[in-house]
Amino acid sequence: MSNPLLQYIYVYNAMGSAIDINEVIKNDISKKKISGKVSNTGGFDVYSSLMTFFETSDSFFVKLNVAAVNIDSSGLKSKLTLKRVDSFIYKIHFFFSLFFILTTIFIAFYILISTKGEEKVLEYFLLPFFGVFYLILIVSIGSSSVKSLKAKIENSLSKENIKLEKIE
User: What is the edge-to-edge ordering of all strands in the sheet holding 9-15?
Assistant: First the structure.
């Protein structure tokens, strides 16, 4: 699912080799500065785990796939890609909130039509606002998690003197 309101891929030019970047991320994971593991698709999957004692593959809400590739033959420049990946839990909450909004709007219109406006229908039109609030909450938690992870990775790389230049 692609949401046009959120940015899902961050790309950087890095002044350092891909091996150095991977070592920094691997060291941060091993020192428990960042929760994560080696990804099946290449690079590392980093995530903010809500339950650090019970880290399973589904204990994250959203994660970043961090992949670095050398872009020159000397190994001095590399391309760093941070890709947001939504978990199954995030998608369930997101689609449940959409389903709740649509269902409550349908019910409110049905009551409005069936009672011909004789009943107080305004209360029924307030229900979708709870769904909208829940949707905003889910999206903001996911966005703030991604921003936090991105900042942690940028800080880790800057401490190791790897300069990042964002590509638009």
Answer: 35-38, 44-47, 62-70, 78-86, 9-15, 163-167
Q: Give the integer Cα–Cα distance in Å for 53 and 32.
A: 12
Are 107 and 45 in contact by the 8 Å Cβ rule? The answer is: no
Confidence label for 1 from pLDDT (cuts 50, 70 and 90): very low
Q: What is the pLDDT of residues 96-150, one digit of tens each?
A: 999 999 999 998 888 888 887 666 777 888 889 999 999 999 999 888 888 989 9
Q: Are 15 and 162 in contact (CB under 8 A)?
A: yes
Q: What residues does 44 pair with on adjacent strands?
A: 38, 66
By the 10 Å C-beta count (0-12 exposed, 13-18 middle, 19+ buried), 122 is classed as: exposed
Query: CA 49: distance to chain centroid?
Result: 12
Neighbours of 19 (CB within 10 A): 12
Task: Kindly report the pTM of this predicted structure.
Answer: 0.81
CA angle, corner 23, sides to 22 and 29, nearest 5? 90
